[in-house]
Amino acid sequence: DAGVTQSPTHLIKTRGQQVTLRCSPKSGHDTVSWYQQALGQGPQFIFQYYEEEERQRGNFPDRFSGHQFPNYSSELNVNALLLGDSALYLCASSSTGTSRTDTQYFGPGTRLTVL
Amino acid sequence: RKEVEQDPGPFNVPEGATVAFNCTYSNSASQSFFWYRQDCRKEPKLLMSVYSSGNEDGRFTAQLNRASQYISLLIRDSKLSDSATYLCVASGGSYIPTFGRGTSLIVHP
Fold first, then answer.
1. Rounded to the nearest 5°, which phi and psi values hold at A72?
2. Which of A4, A53, B4, B63 shows a CA-CA span of 20 to 30 A to B72?
3. Any CB–CB contact under 8 A between B108 and chain A?
4. Averaged over A69-87, what is the pLDDT?
5. H/E element holding A53?
6. Do residue A41 and residue B98 have CB atoms under 8 angstroms apart?
7. What mean pLDDT, rounded, does chain A reach?
8. What is the CA radius of gyration of chain B?
């Protein structure tokens, strides 16, 4: 049973650049959520995708955008990178429409460093 | 006031001790609650779900108090391997999942 996978594991970018992070959900899951986790903080919800549409969004600027594909995998795009975007980006998958809709499983994350 | 609050600790306890963490939440519309464990520089791993009156899994017990809007996690007979950061999260319905900043636990010999 494949768990949540993310790529790449590490990434170094410079200010102003754009980045794309990728996520494949756990087998049998159809919903993907993205989180940003700064050092010493809990994960902050960016947005959630279900049926290829953004269903919920946290308090993040429009520079953060995403996409979900028909196979349920997802991408997170961040434009015009700022130093403050340096963080661990986590993808979590879940299964909508079941009794465990809110139960999320996390991938290993992508550590983004912006110089 | 943060929506989900946890004491960051660290809680420093000897092996075999019992330790309890609390987590308060401000949104009374929250429906689902969870505890996650996160090791240094790793992803959070689901530890327990907390529904209605709470639940127990081996040495771990989670309780929900809706009236006072807090959840708790009790760890009995602490092991060295329990050393980690414990995150609570409140979510459900139209309410976005909201994590606390985590409580650090250090279990020493």
1. 80, -10
2. A4
3. no
4. 98
5. strand A53-57
6. no
7. 94
8. 13
Q: Write the burial class of residue A60 (CB in 10 Å: 0-12 exposed, 13-18 middle, 19+ buried).
A: middle
**Size of chain A, expressed as the number of residues it contains:** 115
Cα of B100 to nearest chain A Cα, Å: 6
Antiparallel, parallel or unpaired: β A64-68 and A74-78: antiparallel
CA dihedral B38, B44, B46, B47 (to 10 degrees): 10
A41: contact with B, CB 8 A cutoff: yes
Residue type for position B86: Y
Out of B31, B41, B102, the one facing A42 most closely (by C-beta) is B102
Q: In whole angstroms, give the CA distance from residue B32 to residue B89.
A: 8
Q: Determine contact: A66 vs chain B, CB below 8 A.
A: no
Question: Could you tell me which residues come within 8 angstroms of residue B31 by beta carbon, excluding any fewer than 6 positions away?
Answer: A102, B91, B92, B93, B95
Query: A56 at the B interface (CB within 8 A)?
Result: yes
Percent of chain B having pLDDT more than 90? Answer: 75
> What count of CB pairs under 8 Å joins A to B?
54
Show the tokens assigned to A29: 């899951």
Tell me how far CA of residue B104 lies from CA of B5, B54, B69, in angstroms.
13, 22, 21
Inter-residue contact B103 to B7 (CB < 8 Å): yes
Written as one letter, the residue type at A47 is: F
Nearest CA-CA distance, residue A41 and chain B, Å = 5
Q: Which two tokens stand for residue B6?
A: 């946890």
- B32, B46, B101: residue with CB nearest A41: B101
Q: Residue B57: is its pLDDT beyond 80?
A: yes
